[in-house]
Amino acid sequence: MEKQALAGVKVVDFGWALVGSLTGKHLGDHGAQVIRVESSTRPDLTRMDRTVSTTKGLDDNPMFTHFNTSKYSMALNLKHPRAREVIDRLIRWGDVVNANFTPGTLSKLGFGYEYIRGIKPDIIMAEGSAYGQTGPLAQEWGVDGTGAALSGYLHLTGWPDRGPVAPNLPYSDVVLPLFIATAIVAALDYKRRTGKGQYIDASMIEVCSHQITPALLDWEANRHLQTRNGNRIAYAAPHSVFPCQGDDRWCAIGVFTDGEWEAFCHAIGDPPWTKEPRFATLNSRKENEDALEELVSEWTEQHSAEEVMQIMQAAGVAASVVQTVQDLLEHDPQLKEREFLVPLKHPVMGAFGHPTPPYKLLKTKAQVRTSPCLGEHTEYVCTEFLGMSHEEFAELSQQEVFR
Amino acid sequence: MADSLLGGFRALDLTDEKGFVCGKILAALGVEVIKIEKPGGDPARGIPPFLHNTPDAEKSLYWYAFNTDKRSITLNLEVRQGQDLFRKLAQKADFVLESFAPGYMDSLGLGYEALRQANPRIIVTSITSFGQKGPYTQYKGSDLIASAMGGVLLTTGDPDRPPVREGPDSIYFHTGAAAALGTVIAHCHREITGEGQQVDVSLQGVVASRTFTNLIIWEFKKQLIKRSGSVRKIGARATRWIWQCKDGYVFWAFMPGKFGAPANRVLSKWIDEDGLENPLNKVTNWDEFDLTAISREELDAHEEAIAKFFMNHTKKEIAEEGLKRGLNAASIDSPPDVLENRQLEARGYWVDLEHPESGSTLMYPKQFFLCNETENFMKRRAPLIGEHNEDIYVKELGLSSTEIAALKKAGVI
Questions:
Q1: Which of B45, B160, B210, B362 is deepest in the core (most CB within 10 A)?
Q2: Do B179 and A51 touch (CB under 8 A)?
Q3: Could you give the CA distance from residue A22 to residue A70 in angstroms, rounded to a whole number?
Q4: From the DSSP assignment, how many helices (H) and strands (E) are in chain B?
Q5: What is the 3-state composition of chain A as percent helix, strand, coil, each rounded to the nearest 5?
Q6: Residues of chain B positioned with their CB less than 8 A from the CB of A201
Q7: In sequence order, which ranges of B194-255 are alpha helices (DSSP H)?
Q8: Is A178 close to B180, i.e. CB distance below 8 A?
Q9: Are residues B312 and B250 in contact, defined by beta-carbon separation less than 8 angstroms?
Q10: From the list A181, A229, A337, which residue is nearest B135 (CB)?
C-alpha cells in the first residue's frame, strides 16, 4: 500500500468538541500520528452526548467517533502537578500542537505557546477559537451558532418575508478545522524549507465572514443591503426547490443558461406556457418568477423526486432529489462509490459507518481507523513514543496523572 | 516583507465559481495563482452584484470577492495552440486547479495522466459536483443542487415551506476550503517524495460530510431530522436557536448542565431585573439542569418567557450588555454590521484594495488566519481579463509580438 501523505508527522492534539477534534482527524486520516490528549476529569462534550449512547459510559458515542478517527488516546489530567513531566515529553516528541480551548486556558495551565516554544523552538502550534486569540472579545464564549450569527451567514439564510433559519447541522464548526489543518500542513512544508516553526491563530468569525464578501462589497460599493432570498439567485431561473410525489419529497432544479432553459422546456414536454414571452429570457423569468415556480411545481408534483432528477439530468439540467440522510446511506450510489462511509468495528459499539475525508487524494489515499476509547493508548504512547520506562509509567500511574 | 507559508509555488487556476475559493486560499498563502480565462473572460464575471450596479465583465463584485491576489491570462484550451501553451505552463507549475465536468480535460489531452507526463510533480485538484468516478459523475450541479444531494438542504428552513438553501454560497466556500486542504496535503507529500497526484473533491461529498449528527441518529435510532426553522434539533432536545428581538434577531442556545449553567443563571437574573414573568426561577440547580428530564410544556413555558425577554431588548443591548453579563448570545449581523464588528477591527481584519481602473477602493477581509512568522494576507484586487498576458506570454515564455498578434488573431489568447 502507498505510504500516506502525512506519514511521519507527529501531532499532540489537545483539540476537543468539534473544531479541535476535526482538525486532528484531517491529519490522522492522512497518516499523521495524532495523540489525542484528554481526561476523564473533563471529558469531551461528544463523549458525554446522550443522543444515541446507551451505556452512559465515555466510549459508546458514535458522534465522538465521527470526529476522532485515526487517533491515539492518552488520558492525562492537565491540572495534576506532575502532568508537566508528560507534557514536556509530548512536546519534545511532536511536530505540531493542536488546541481549541478558550483563549488563555493553556497559558493559565502553564502550557501556553511561549512555554511550548521554549521546549521545542520549531514547534507548529495552532489554536482555533470563536473570536481569535487577541482583541477585546478574545476570551468570550462561542459555538457554531456564534460564528453563524456574527459572520452574516444566518442573516442571509431563510425567506425574505421571515426571520433567519439555521440548518439542523453545524457549518462554522466544520469549516474552521479545514482552514486550521490547511495552515498546519502548509506550515509543515514551510518548516521543512526554512527550519522555522509557526504559531497559528484561527478565528471562526474571521474564516466565516469571508464567504459573505460579495454582500460586504455590495454594501460598500452600492449601499445595497443583501438579505434572505429563499432559494432564488440573481443569475438563474428557475432556481428553487419543487414539491414532488410523496411525503415531504422535493427536487431542487437550477436553470442557468438559455441552452439549459430550452432543454428544461423540452424535458417537461414543451407545454404551451413555456413559449410565453414572459418566460423567454432570464430577465423576464426573473421578473415572473412566482408564476414560473408555480407552473414548474404543477409538473414536478406529478413525478417522484427521483424521476424529476433523472429527467432533468438526462436533459443536461442541474437537478437533485432533496435527499434525507436515509437516502445518503441507502439510496445513493454516488456516495457509495466515493466510500463516503467505511464500515469499521469499534471495540465498544461494534461495526458502523466511519466518515472518510470528502477530498480524495487519489495516490496517497486516506486510511481511516476507528476512534480510540478514552486513554486506550496511554501506556503505549508513554513507553513506545515518549521513551518512558515501564517503572516510570507505573509510578506516574499510581499518582493518578493519567486520568 | 515577511515570507508567506507557500511563497514561491505556482498554481494554474481553471476553475469556475465552484472552485474559486480554493485558489483564493492558496493565493493568500503566497502561491502565485494564475487564473486562466477564456478569451473574452470567465463567464462567472457575469455573476452579480456589480460595482455601482453596472453589469460589466470587469465589475462583478462576486468575481472580485473570490479571486483576490490571483493573476489572469486568457487562453483558449479548445484549440491545439492553446493546449500546447497550457502544457508549457504546466511544466513549470506546481498545481492545476480545475472544475470542468470529469473527462473534459482528458478530451483536450490535458487530463491528469497527460499532465503527469509533462510534469510528474504536478498536483491536479479537480473540484466537481459529484466527483471523478461513479454513476452521477456527469450530472450537473451547483451550490443548491449539492446542498440537496448532500443532505443539508432538507434540514434547513421553516417546516411549513420547502427546504431553503444557506444564503451565501456556503457550499462553494466549504468545498473550496476542503479542496485547499487536500491540495496542501498532497503538496506536503510531493515536496518530500517528488510525486504529484490528483485530488478529487466533490461538492456533494463535502456537503454530506457535515451530516454526521443526523446520520448517526438515523443509523442508531431510525429517526430523520428535517428542517425546524429557528429551532435546532441537535442533541437530545430541540431548542430555539434564533430569537426575535426589538429590531432584529439574536442567536442564543438553551444548553443543559455545566456547559449551559453560567449563561442560564445570567438569563434568569436578567429576566427578573426586567420584571418579567420568570418560570426559569424554579430551576434550583442549573449545573444539573437536564433538558431531557423536563416536560415539553415546561420547556415551552421557559422558551415563552425567554422570547418575551428578547423582545424587550434591541440587538445591540443583547450583544453588548450580554457580553458584560456572560449571556453567551450573539447578534445576527447583517453585512454592514459585520463591517463594524469591533473585534474584527481590533484584529486588523480589513484591508483596502485599490481598483485603479475604476478609481475605487474597496475594503476586503484580509486574513483567513494569523501566523506569527509569516504573512498570509490578501494584498491585491482580483485581476482584469488577461491583465498578465504580457508578463506570462512575453516575459516568461518569450513569445514575440508577432507571435502574440497571431495567437490573438487565431482566438487563442
A1: B210
A2: no
A3: 11
A4: 16, 14
A5: 40, 15, 45
A6: 369-372
A7: 203-208, 212-221
A8: yes
A9: no
A10: A337
> Which residues of chain A does B367 touch, with a Cβ-Cβ cutoff of 8 Å?
206
pLDDT per position as a tens digit, A92-122? 999 999 999 999 999 999 999 999 999 999 9
Q: How many CB pairs under 8 A join A and B?
A: 497
DSSP states of B137-156: TT----HHHHHHHTTSGGGS
In a domain, A196, yes or no: yes
Alpha helices in B7-79 (DSSP H): 20-28, 61-66
Give CA angle at A303 (A302, A306), nearest 5°. Answer: 165
Place of cell 414539491: A243
What is the domain range of residue A381? 10-210+338-398
Instruction: Please state the domain count of chain A.
Output: 2
- In terms of domains, do A249 and A107 share one? no
For B185, the closest of A135, A185, A196 (CB atoms) is: A185
Ranges of residues in chain A with a pLDDT under 50 are: none
Is A142 close to B198, i.e. CB distance below 8 A? no
Tell me what percent of the residues of chain B surpass a pLDDT of 90. Answer: 92
Indicate if A164 and A125 belong to the same structural domain. yes
Q: What is the distance of C-alpha B133 from the center of its chain?
A: 24
Cα A9 from Cα B191, distance rounded (Å): 14
Q: Which amino acid, one-letter code, is at B131? A: G
Q: Do A168 and B214 make contact, defined as CB atoms within 8 angstroms?
A: yes
Picking from A6, A152, A250, the nearest residue to B162 by CB comes out as: A250
Interface test with B, best of A63, A213, A344 (most B CBs within 10 A): A213
**Domain B229-336 = CATH 3.60.21:** no
Mean pLDDT of chain B: 95
Is the CB of residue B142 less than 8 Å away from at least one CB of chain A? yes
What's at A101, amino acid-wise?
F
Say if pTM beats, i.e. exceeds, 0.80: yes
As to burial, measured by CB atoms within 10 angstroms (0-12 exposed, 13-18 middle, 19+ buried), residue B160 is exposed
Partners of B25 on chain A (C-beta within 8 Å) are: 179, 182
Phi, psi of B411, rounded to the nearest 5 degrees? 75, 25
Residue B239 has pLDDT above 90, yes or no: no
Min Cα separation B399/chain A (Å): 33
Q: Which of B162, B167, B368 sits opposite A210 (nearest CB)?
A: B368
As for the ipTM of the complex, it is 0.98
The string of pLDDT tens digits covering residues B138-197 is 999 999 999 999 999 999 999 999 999 998 899 999 999 999 999 999 999 999 999 999
Q: How far apart are CA A184 and CA A22, in angstroms?
A: 13
A237 by DSSP, 3-state: which?
coil
Q: Which of B136, B178, B234 sits opposite A358 (nearest CB)?
A: B178
- CATH number at B10-209+347-409: 3.40.50.10540
Which residue does chain B place closest to A181, by CA atoms?
Answer: B181
Domains in chain B: boundaries: 10-209+347-409, 229-336
